[in-house]
Amino acid sequence: MSPKTNAPLSHSVFAKTTKRLSVFWLLLLIILPLVIAAIYTTLGVFRDHNTLALERRGAIAYLAASMAKENLEKIIDVGVSLSTRVQFQKLVESGKWNEAIKLMESVPKDFPYIQQATLFDPQGIIRAATPLTPELSAIMGKDFSYRDYYKGVSKNWEPYVAEAIKPAVPLGYNLIPVATPIKSQQGAVLGILLLNIKLDAIAAWSKKIDVGPTGFVYIVDQRGHLIAHPTLLPTEDIVDFSSVPAVQKTLKGERGVEVLFNPIENEERVTAYEPVPQYGWGVAVVEPARTAFAERNKEAGRVAILWVLIIFAVGLFTYRLLQDRAVISDQRDRERLLLESIGDGVIAIDRTWNIISWNKSATVLSGWSREEALGRPLREVVRFVRESDKKENIVFIEEVMLYGEQRSMENHTLLIRKDGAEIRIGDSAAPVFSASGKVAGAIIIFRDVSKEREAQKIREEILSETIHDLRAPATAIKSAAALYGDPEELARDPEALKEGVEVIKEANARMLDLINTLLAKARGDAGILERERVSLSSVISGIVKESGPEAARKNVKITYLPSEKPPYVLANIGRLKEIFSNLIDNAVKYNNNGGTITIAHQTESDLIKTTIRDTGIGVSAEDLSKLFTPYFRASTREKIQGTGLGLFTVKKFVEEAGGSIAVDSTTGKGATFTVSLPLAQN
């Protein structure tokens, strides 16, 4: 048997990879629903707590707006209550403003959030104030009808909460005026009672709302001016917040909760905004997202961790279970892998000759697939016949089943493929025993021996041809030796002595040539090669020098044109000499008297091309394609002795060195052989 060493390795790697992938996909199939459930549940918890957090901030904003509305209504109620006192109305109606204001002197004390009470006539001219300061005295009688509080209250002569203002006289703080019309019993407008509320009082309202340690509430008036904020100082100018998106929506009467990015603080903030009904104000509750959603993140994290633990536990248990199953599967696959890795065809049959196992090589050799063969009788699928008479040859299998001993096929056995083609095969069969020791079947092993038979045939032909070719020089030597054994004959023909010596020399050279060729081939077949960095110029120069006497005898001129830079190749020096000795000797041998041989080099990329051009008898076009086959001799060269192995050997040696050889020739015009070899690295 001849196992394919690379196939099992690659198949093993592939099988292991496939199994790992199978385990992975099966594990994924089990884990994936859990992962989906984990994601769905975690997102559900995240979403619910997110909604809860947003709704909570929205509720706080609503509470803050309701509280602001309630406090404003209280202030308005105070204003209405004060303005409807009968005595107060009479004094105002009679124009006794100073006496009327005295009735209001206790208001700032009774209502601490009211900073000041001021009286205006219906035209908006200030008439009296309490408490009265020198600065206020200086502006008595001035017209303030341009102020928002006058425009608001005079529009329908209803109580009006005005926008935040900076007082006309410097007080060191800003105010929110609340204007109430003073009417007679008959409904005629007598004047305006203005109650000024400090912004500190409104800020105190917002501080009563618990938004957590990092949250805060701010309030804007109907113009978007900031009237309550943790960082707002009473002495500051009016701060305009009308460009803030949440404020803009609030002033339009919209409510909502949004997560917005604050570029100043470089963080996301949850902002809930709510309008204050009837008064046009807006309330916003702001809290950093990290604290607003802390509970959400905490709960979602808990659920996620719980799911991770569940998935890990299930995954680990499943993986261990799959690993245990994989071990059992590996044992079966290892046996199948070994069977598939064998380069020979392997068939197993049971006691009834039905096929129970069939490897890949059996498919390649027979043409029958595993699916087609399994379960069928052996003789329906596999036909072993004798090469001589084409009769069935299964005696070796029958003997295995009968005697329980290994048997080999007969020589010259053929396998008839599914397509009818015939393959020369060889090998054996062995019994398979049951647990009780009885023969339960057989394993038949077979391989294609066509190449071996062909190689054997070539070796036999080479040996036969060589022995035949050795007879000629041996006979010549024998004849010359017989001549030297007859002194009388030598005396009659002195030239025969000289001719006999030449005959012996030529015959000896011929025999050595044949022996060297056979030896070189044998060494190559055995793989005995040593490679080294060799100067190609030195090798060819030496061969040209050795060929000089023979070339001179035929009056052939050899011209060698070495490269300026000597080329080096990585090769076996003996093989290299064989290559160029054969080619140069042939160029001399098959040249015309007075002919020429030109040897030159040409470098192309990483190759060195050596051309050997002669002016000899050449090769016909029909013979060129057969020139490198064993025992072939061109029709133009049959008159000159040779084995027909020289160029075959040359081509083999060139290809072993990683190169190639080509020939170009025309009958009567010589031949050009080009040998291309890879250059050696420096």
UniProtKB/TrEMBL annotation:
What is the membrane topology here? Multi-pass membrane protein
Q: Where are the transmembrane segments?
A: 304-322
The cellular component terms of Gene Ontology attached to this UniProt record, alphabetical and capped at eight, are: plasma membrane
The EC designation for this entry is: 2.7.13.3
Q: Which ranges carry the PAS domain? A: 331-404
Q: Which Pfam families match?
A: dCache_1, HATPase_c, PAS
Q: Which domain of life is it from?
A: Bacteria
The protein, known as: histidine kinase
